């Protein structure tokens, strides 16, 4: 589904991703973990064409998208849920969804709203008036109505109350059941381990560890060394 091969990404002279390789197979939920500032969001931006790599190759469904413009990458079928949600605050919920909707897949408005009942009852509310948790749900719903083949979620639980984290978890569980491929960037270890099929850990711009979630759960040394927990 997604193949990232030896990707090197810079911000100006600042060398952030120093040879990242990672893959997401169809239907897989892949967790990308790592401390703050190691380059997780930069990888998301590289995938989406927002900060393209200077070296390396990114393939989506076997097509080279390394230098494809961002707007085309979204249309090729990668749904992006950016860190910090970035919903359109001055648009209401329905309008936020209409911006990305693409009516040629399983994720119709109705089906997406079935996943997020809280949003259904508030379609005319301005996104800027929603709670952080509701905005996160909206960001996920907005990505889904674009009918992506792959969902790229960057720290979706960040700043959410425990109840909303549980709600989001339920949604990710349902997406997984539906066969959606997900690259889940997370700081909350237990949340990621609950849904991931495979885990990659990043440190200073490289992948330093790859394992099964149950292996990491019982690997105290790796958790402390790579994640500081
Ligand atoms: N727009 C930017 N310009 C310059 N440096 C940046 C920019 N965004 C992030 N960085 C730097 O790149 C590194 C990786 O950041 P980021 O990818 O956001 O990490 P993470 O998502 O893992 O917390 C950090 O050192 C950060 O300060
Ligand atoms: Mg980040």
The radius of gyration is 17 Å
> What's the β-strand tally?
10
Strand content: 25-35%
Structural class: alpha/beta
**Most strands sheet:** 6 strands, mixed
Spatial order of strands in the largest sheet? 6-7-8-3-9-10
**Span between termini:** 31 Å
Give the low-pLDDT segments.
none
Helical proportion, percent range:
25-40%
Query: What hetero molecules are in the model?
Result: adenosine-5'-diphosphate, magnesium ion
Q: Which second-level CATH architecture applies?
A: 3-Layer(aba) Sandwich
User: What oligomeric state best describes the polypeptide chains here?
Assistant: single chain
Fourth-level CATH superfamily: P-loop containing nucleotide triphosphate hydrolases
Query: Which descriptor suits the 3D outline?
Result: globular
CATH topology: Rossmann fold
Characterization of this structure:
It is a single chain. It is built from 10 helices and 10 strands. The chain has 229 residues and is of the alpha/beta class. The protein has one domain (2-227): P-loop containing nucleotide triphosphate hydrolases (Rossmann fold), CATH 3.40.50.300. The strands form 2 sheets. A 6-stranded mixed beta sheet has the order 6-7-8-3-9-10, with helices on both faces. A 4-stranded antiparallel beta sheet has the order 2-1-4-5, with helices on one face. A hairpin with a 2-residue loop joins strand 9 (198-203) and strand 10 (206-211). Helix 3 (93-100) packs parallel to helix 6 (132-144). The longest helix has 16 residues, at 162-177. The radius of gyration is 17 Å and the shape is globular. The mean pLDDT is 94. The structure holds adenosine-5'-diphosphate (ADP) and magnesium ion (MG). Magnesium ion binds at residues 40-41, 83, 154-155.
């Amino acid at each position: 589904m997604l193949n990232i091969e030896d990707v090197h990404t810079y911000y100006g002279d600042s060398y952030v991703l120093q040879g990242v390789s990672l893959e997401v197979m169809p239907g897989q939920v892949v967790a990308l973990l790592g401390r703050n500032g190691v380059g997780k969001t930069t990888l998301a931006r590289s995938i989406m064409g927002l900060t393209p790599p200077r070296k390396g190759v990114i393939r989506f469904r076997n097509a080279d998208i390394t230098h494809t413009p961002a707007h085309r990458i979204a249309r090729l079928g990668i749904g992006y849920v950016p860190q910090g949600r970035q919903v359109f605050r001055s648009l209401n919920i329905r309008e936020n969804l209409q911006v990305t909707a693409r009516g040629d897949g399983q994720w119709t408005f109705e089906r997406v709203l079935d996943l997020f009942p809280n949003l259904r009852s508030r379609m005319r509310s301005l996104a800027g008036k929603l709670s952080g948790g509701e905005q996160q749900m909206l960001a996920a719903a907005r990505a889904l109505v674009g009918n992506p083949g792959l969902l790229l979620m960057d720290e979706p639980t960040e700043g959410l109350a425990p109840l909303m984290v549980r709600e989001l978890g339920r949604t990710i569980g349902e997406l997984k059941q539906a066969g959606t491929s997900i690259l889940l960037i997370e700081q909350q270890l237990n949340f990621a381990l609950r849904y991931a099929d495979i885990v990659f850990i990043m440190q200073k711009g490289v992948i330093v560890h790859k394992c099964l979630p149950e292996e990491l759960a019982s690997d105290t040394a790796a958790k402390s060394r790579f994640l500081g927990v």
